[in-house]
Amino acid sequence: MVPKPFHDRDGDIWYNGVFVPWREANLHVLSHGLHYASCVFEGIRVYNGSVYALTEHSARLVQSAELMGFTLPYGVGELDAATQATVARQGIRDGYVRPVAWRGSEMMGVSAQQNAIHVAIAVWEWPSYFSPEARMAGIRLQTATWRRPSPECAPTQAKAAGLYMICTLSKHAAEAAGCHDALMLDYRGLIAEATGANVFLVIDGKLHTPIPDCFLDGITRRSIINLAKRRGLEVIERAIPPDDLRLADEVFLTGSAAEVTPVGQIDALHFTPGQISRTLMEDYDALVRNVPSQAAA
């Protein structure tokens, strides 16, 4: 079934402090955010009507804007309240939240310091499509030709729209090759992340994950590290060369959209999603849905 386009849906979007009918929540074609990527955003999940890690996401949106050289007209508390109100107004139980902020259309050119800053929050239904059993089949990745840039070349700690251009290119190429996603290396040739998720390797019963020094330290990534430590698993954050994939027994991705998703193949290498992936998947599901898990306190 073809999904309904995002410009043609029912409900309201929070837009600069007021609710606007979904189909009327528009911006001008000469907005600076469209032409020069002066735009930041977040991706947040709603589980059972509760927004997971909302304040952490709101704080990162504010920080991303600051890294991009502009200040949001709303603070973290206001963004939290606006998100909660939007979720309630849309009547969402399981869904996805997209806060986005961008420079407007007062000036058109590289310099646009006087442009107004706009903020919008949209929420739509997004149930859990796959059971843990289905997700344990493992997805296929191919290594991207594009690389994550150096922090000297881009504001890599901002969740900024422009930084996702190479992610779209990489994911499109992966899908054209019959894969689900791409594994991205960084400017040094080290493992970085997938196109929208962090990556973990299980080697000899320990979790290994790249140091997020040129890509986002994901909020889900931090949740998984905490859950793993509660389980008594050792977590090693380090520089990981691609050859170390040959040492891995399991590989999985983490992110607000990906949650915990095991990987079954990267290029010619095959992996068997195993007990550690399953355990952390189940612990994360329990965490975000506020149900008891078997993880140690």
Please provide a written account of the structure:
- The protein has 297 residues and is α+β, with helices and mostly antiparallel strands.
- It has two domains: 12-125, D-amino Acid Aminotransferase, Chain A, domain 1 (2-Layer Sandwich); 132-288, D-amino Acid Aminotransferase, Chain A, domain 2, CATH 3.20.10.10.
- It is 26% helix and 29% strand.
- It has helices spanning 32-36, 54-67, 76-90, 132-135, 165-176, 219-230, 275-288, and strands at 12-15, 18-21, 39-41, 44-47, 50-51, 95-103, 117-125, 139-148, 181-186, 191-194, 198-203, 206-210, 235-238, 250-255, 259-266, 269-270.
Topology (SSEs and partners):
Blueprint: E1 12-15, E2 18-21, H1 32-36, E3 39-41, E4 44-47, E5 50-51, H2 54-67, H3 76-90, E6 95-103, E7 117-125, H4 132-135, E8 139-148, H5 165-176, E9 181-186, E10 191-194, E11 198-203, E12 206-210, H6 219-230, E13 235-238, E14 250-255, E15 259-266, E16 269-270, H7 275-288
Parallel strand pairs: 8-9, 8-15, 12-13
Antiparallel strand pairs: 1-2, 1-7, 3-6, 4-5, 4-6, 6-7, 9-10, 11-12, 11-14, 14-15, 15-16
